[in-house]
Amino acid sequence: MKSKLIKVQPEDNVAVALVDLYQGDVVDFEGESVNILNDSKAKHKVALVDFAAGDSIFMYGVLVGKALSPIGKGGLLTTENVKHEASSVSQKTETTSWNAPDITKWKDRTFMGYHREDGQVGTQNVWLFFPLVFCENRNIELLKDVFEKELSFHKASKQRQLLRNLISGVSEDTAIAEAEAEEAIFKNIEVKFITHQGGCGGIRQDAVSLSKLLAGYVNNPNVAGATVLSLGCQNLQIDIFRKALSEKNPDMKKPVLIYEQQQEGTVEHMLAKIIKESFEGIKKANQIERKPAPLSKLKMGLECGGSDGFSGISANPALGYASDLLAALGGSPILSEFPELCGVEQELVNRCVNEADAQRFMQLMKDYEKSAIDAGSGFDMNPSPGNIKDGLITDAMKSAGAAKKGGTSPIQAILDYGEYVTKPGLNLLCTPGNDVESTTAMVGSGANVVVFTTGLGTPTGNPIAPVLKVASNSTLARRMPDIIDIDSGPVIRGEKTIEEMGEEILEYVIQVASGEVEAKADSLGQDDFIPWKRGVSL
Questions:
Q1: Are 216 and 154 in contact, with CB atoms under 8 Å apart?
Q2: CA 291 → CA 118, 127, 216, 506, distances in Å?
Q3: At what angle do helices 137-151 and 267-285 cross, to 10 degrees?
Q4: What is the average pLDDT across 64-92?
Q5: How far apart are CA 53 and CA 257, in angstroms?
Q6: Does the structure show a pLDDT above 60 at 406?
Q7: Among 31, 296, 318, 414, which has the minimal tally of Cβ within 10 Å of its Cβ?
Q8: Global pTM?
Q9: What is the sign, positive or negative, of the torsion defined by CA atoms of 143, 219, 240, 412?
């Protein structure tokens, strides 16, 4: 490691500590000596100038806060001496030029995917079961138990193997060997199950929003077909769901089996009918095999969660470079988490390809922030205790680093929650910053793979799309190897450039998309699904 401090942009007046620093240390940085005034843990921010109360603090080249009290050069920035502050946003003032990355080595690359009749290509082949209303969750769980056990889609977990051993009295090695001998009946199809707490009891707008999300999951290229359960009397009626499905894809060719319990009669009769008909659909879907597809068929969700003070200087910009590569190849990166774009709006506005998209982005941001303020909160409440503990002390500081996931490419489309990605290039999707809600939304908008950066560690996954985890630091990668797919710690140590790390991420995405490597979240069976109610969620 060449330096103990790093400054992201030349105009920044704070630096990030790359190692733990202690009061009295003298650090040589950019030709000057910085006398460390406070013990400062790695990832936290150190003042490079003397701040008076009210002075502006810049990082990533943007305003990220203001000093609440004087901070001496070499002093530690904390929640006690810094408050959130972000630059105001105006109309689109310029068109940002883009230096597209060299894609020579990637332009003829392919991945092995599942081709759908509408031209989309999946990275997985899933038959999906879900309810239109929470009243059907129990029936979904019953079906899950039947299909997973009888078709051996998921081998017994280590915990089940241990209990099996204790019950039967056989050796643990024998129990494990028997579990490993289980083989799935179908090789080319997975069966997945979604439950949720929506569909009724809330406002009607929530039911319509949920219908669009679920329709997006059916239309997602990773889904071969679906079994849908309805009670009958709920807000989210079958015709509302069918309308949402038709809006997503008017010429839907996938099999979608819908059952309404109040019309079917007994539970036993309905489940028997569902099992028979779904089994036939699953058998046909199993006949679909992977075939080569261009990288332009990848729609890559860009997510972060459990972020730390290194996320914005290692994992996020590396993912941003991978995003730029994919955009240049005609693929569709998706950047979401609108509360975590606070403070960088002007940059994003200037990257929109047209004025209408710029105005729509600003309006969605304003409406979202107003709803948070009206509820007695605000975007400034977004950083979590874990974020703050690891150096992200204002929302603007967190946002400036989080936005790096989106790279530098032009923004081709602005989408509201539930809308589907149809344009190649970078798409902005309005979602909360909440990890699972955001990931859930991006997959509902067509993402067939998600790359998720984290500094603290999170197991988040998705029922139908692989979610790859990129650690911002090697300590996390070593501590939680069962959830981390890629370690971007070499960037912090100066062993790899952002570009090299970005290429490594894209290479890994291709392997996962081709079924050559399983994402750690899939290995753990981490199938998270949380719809966003359009109340306040940060």
A1: no
A2: 15, 19, 23, 19
A3: 50
A4: 89
A5: 63
A6: yes
A7: 31
A8: 0.91
A9: positive
Opening angle at CA 143, ends 141 and 148, nearest 5? 95
376: buried, middle or exposed (CB in 10 Å: 19+, 13-18, 0-12)?
A: exposed
Hey, CA dihedral for 227, 122, 465, 445, is it positive or negative?
negative
Residue listed under structure tokens 């659909």: 281
Determine the distance from the C-alpha atom of residue 13 to the mean position of all C-alpha atoms in its chain, rounded to a whole number: 31
Largest CA distance in the chain: 80
Give residue 414's identity as a one-letter amino acid code. Answer: I
The 10s digit of each residue's pLDDT in 138-187 is 999 999 999 988 886 555 566 666 666 777 777 666 655 655 555 668 88
**Beta-carbon neighbour count of residue 32 at 10 Å?**
9
Which secondary structure element, helix H or strand E, spans residue 268, and what is its range? helix 267-285
Would residue 321 be called left, alpha or beta, if left means φ above 0 and alpha means ψ between -120 and 50 degrees?
A: alpha
Q: In what order do the strands lie in the sheet with 82-83?
A: 56-59, 62-67, 82-83
pLDDT tens by residue, 336-371: 999 889 889 999 999 999 999 999 999 999 998 888
- Which amino acid is located at 23 in the chain? Q
Structural contact between residues 133 and 127, judged by C-beta atoms closer than 8 angstroms: no
- How far apart are alpha carbons 44 and 33 in whole angstroms? 18
